[in-house]
Design goal:
Length: 580
């Protein structure tokens, strides 16, 4: 009897040891389900075991986290690995340490259909493949509004013309306390995309459920006729529910295909294509009377404003003037404002006008054609002509006014009217005093600029590593935007300039050009910006990008980095109030 009991016990021990030995060689893969809808997350559990060598020499330095893991990367690209976790248990079997290891992975399918989790390998163990069916849409008993998170997309138009503004609105709905979140931005190789200001945060109820909403808006300008198909907008995040349990949030949505129409056949040839919601011309500075005196000083400001276009798309304002009036134009000022409804562009041209010839004269009308996208018809922005009678003593004919381009300063020689011998003409006295005043102002400006340069010179303090990284990262982002021809280049240039020279104030990129006096940089930047909206040949665009990249590299090499102020942090995707 005793012999039979001992024999049975020995058999059980051998079976147990055999099971443990077999467990040490097997790898088990267990998905929490084999069918799910797109946007849902699959939990995959992988179990394995291995012998562990622990002795007195490594007892206190042994780290279980350094143990090997299965080759889970083989599930890509069918699945995206959102998170991974592992836990261990150790037991002694036949005087040997055996570790039971469990890995848990959160997987997000990247497409619909039948996807396969392939054989996974851990040491000498191999798992069996598992098929997962991914269904498009949402579960029939779970409407979109009852999900933990979802994205809604909308556009203000069903179709657009080439280079016409399309406003895209992205709304992310989510519930619970958000711990982490990443929301992608719209992308397209043949479109210029501008962010319309900061994101909005608010709450909204759907089917009695309270959601927190993050809203972003973008202005999209397709550059080629055809069909605009944007990449899907994706969201991935983590949140805790009321019970404190961690949940993975994920969704993706794609906007409908938008037809892009070519320039209408009725639009004037050889004229800049201007599709806008509105476009107006206005001026100020000219007297209400029709009489002008020879030698009088006038300042005329012409403003061109458009809704639905960036400032770079606005054409230069004509400077055609009669011979009786000499002009001294300033640099044109371009500005683009962002509103929830889109971009608002402004171009201002200030010109000093000096009558130099007596008689009747006419300032010609300004006429700019544009396409009204609201009414779908051709319109013209017009400034009517202005007639004047110029009076003055001893005034004679003068050379015609010199017309300058955007990048040139005032040109043309002073006008000296013919006079009788022994007299001092009024015009000579005017130009003499004007020359003295402008020279004094120029010297004062030069002195102030030199003082600012001396004040802003870096001291002996060593730069902070974090600041260097931020400035370097900003410059790399700027160069990357230039390389891909991004419409965000001007914003990134201004951001980098503020990091490079933190003790100086920059309200626009024009301030940077004035500080550096780098004419090559300004010329390259103007060519680059003009190429974004002019539809120039690809080779011309590449040359403009390379020229701007070289000019930026030269500026960074030839200027010292100033770390007096720390660089500002980028605003978070979600404010702290949303996660409380």
């Amino acid at each position: 009897m005793v012999t039979r009991v001992l024999s049975l016990a020995a058999t059980l021990i051998l079976l147990f040891l055999s099971a443990v030995s077999h467990a040490a060689d097997r790898l088990v893969v267990e998905p929490d389900r084999t069918q799910l809808y797109e946007g849902e997350v699959l939990t995959l559990t992988v179990k394995g075991s291995m012998k562990i060598d622990i002795n007195l020499s490594n007892l206190f330095s042994f780290d279980l986290s350094q143990l090997p893991s299965p080759d889970i990367e083989k599930v890509e690209p069918d699945f995206e690995i959102l998170a991974r976790n592992q836990r261990y248990s150790v037991q002694t079997v036949n005087n040997e340490m055996v570790g039971e290891i469990t890995w848990t992975y959160q997987l997000a399918p990247t497409s619909t259909g039948t996807l396969t989790i392939p054989e996974l390998t851990f040491k000498d163990s191999v798992s069996d493949p598992v098929d997962i069916e991914v269904i498009s849409g949402t579960p029939p008993d779970q409407p979109a509004a009852s999900r933990d998170s979802f994205i809604e997309l909308s556009a203000d138009k069903a179709e657009v013309y080439v280079q016409e503004q399309l406003v895209l609105t992205i709304q992310l709905f989510f519930s619970g306390n958000l711990i982490r979140g990443e929301l992608s931005e719209p992308e397209h190789p043949d479109a210029i995309i501008e962010s319309l200001g900061k994101q909005r945060e608010f709450t909204r109820y759907r089917d009695g459920i309270r959601y927190r909403v993050v809203e972003r808006r973008y202005a999209i300008f397709p550059q080629t006729p055809g069909t605009l198909s944007l990449e899907p907008i994706r969201f991935e995040g983590q949140a805790r529910d009321a019970s404190g349990q961690l949940r993975f949030l994920r969704d993706r949505q794609q906007l409908y295909d938008v037809p892009v129409k070519p320039v209408p056949a009725g639009y004037p040839d050889n004229q800049p294509w201007l599709p806008a919601r509105s476009l107006t011309l206005s001026d100020e500075g000219l007297p209400s009377t029709q009489e002008l005196a020879v030698g009088s000083n006038l300042s005329r400001k012409v403003t061109l404003q458009a809704l639905g276009l960036p400032a770079e798309a606005l054409p230069p304002i004509s400077r055609e003037l009669p011979d009786a009036i000499r002009s001294y134009p300033e640099q044109p000022l371009r500005n683009t404002e962002t509103t929830p409804e889109g971009l608002r562009a402004t171009l201002q041209q200030v010109t000093a006008l000096v009558p130099v010839q007596a008689g009747e004269t006419t300032l010609p009308a300004l006429r700019i054609p544009w396409w009204n996208t609201d009414t779908d018809q051709l319109e013209h922005a017009v400034l009517p002509e202005r007639r004047f009678r110029i009076t003055g003593d001893n005034a004679t004919s003068a050379p015609p006014a010199q017309i300058t381009d955007d990048s040139a300063g005032p040109t043309g020689s002073p006008v000296t009217p013919e006079t009788t011998e022994g007299s001092e003409p009024y015009g000579n006295r005017l130009w003499l005093w004007a020359t003295v005043v402008f020279a004094a102002l120029w010297l004062l400006t030069l002195a102030l600029w030199w003082r600012a340069r001396q004040t802003s010179a870096p001291g002996s303090k060593e730069p902070v590593d974090g600041g260097i990284d931020n400035e370097r990262e900003a410059f790399e982002a700027l160069q990357a935007a230039v390389k891909r021809g991004s419409g965000e280049t001007s914003t990134l240039l201004l951001r980098w300039a503020r990091l490079r020279f933190p003790r100086l104030s920059f309200d626009s990129v024009s301030d940077l050009f004035k500080l550096t006096e780098d004419r090559a940089l300004k010329t390259a930047f103007d060519r680059f910006q003009a190429g974004l909206y002019s539809g120039q040949h690809h080779t011309h665009e590449e040359n403009a990008r390379q020229q701007l990249q070289q000019a930026l590299d030269s500026l960074r090499r030839n200027t010292a980095w100033d770390n007096e102020a720390s660089s500002p942090d980028l605003p978070p995707l979600y404010p702290a109030s949303l996660s409380r």
